[in-house]
Here is the input.
Amino acid sequence: MMGDNRDNSQDSRVSSVVGYVPLENFVGRAERLFFSLDDDTAAWEIWKWPFAIRYDRLFSTIK
Here is the structure.
């Protein structure tokens, strides 16, 4: 599993800290991207959203 801050998070890719997620914990898989912001905009900076939302990625299919 990958964290929502993939460039600076410790998720299942760091086996010495978190490790792999057991198969029985899987519920489903992601199929759509709901919301996406530019890399230099934090999610809590809502005043930047009109210019930072990646409109071309909203509701796009994840391959």
